[in-house]
Write a structure and sequence with these properties.
alpha+beta, three-stranded antiparallel sheet, 3 helices
């Protein structure tokens, strides 16, 4: 079974840290990661295993993001 990780919102003070984390797990350039994070309510990662999704969610939540698993 595959899951999607959806970024719903984040603490503005943590924006740079969240962009860096998104770059890490999405393998994106800085501009692409920044654009993705600024869209909020965006699927940050599609088609991942539950274990990978939980790890991503945990890390983003530690940085101040609200993230859901779909």
């Amino acid at each position: 079974m595959e899951f999607d990780v959806k970024l719903e919102k984040f603490d503005a003070t943590a924006k740079i840290k969240i962009i860096k984390e998104v770059r890490t797990f999405m393998d994106l350039g800085l501009k692409e990661a920044k654009d993705m994070v600024e869209k909020v309510l965006v699927v940050a990662k599609k088609g991942v295993t539950k274990e990978e999704a939980v790890a991503i969610i945990k890390k983003l939540q530690e940085l101040g993001a609200t993230v859901v698993l779909e």
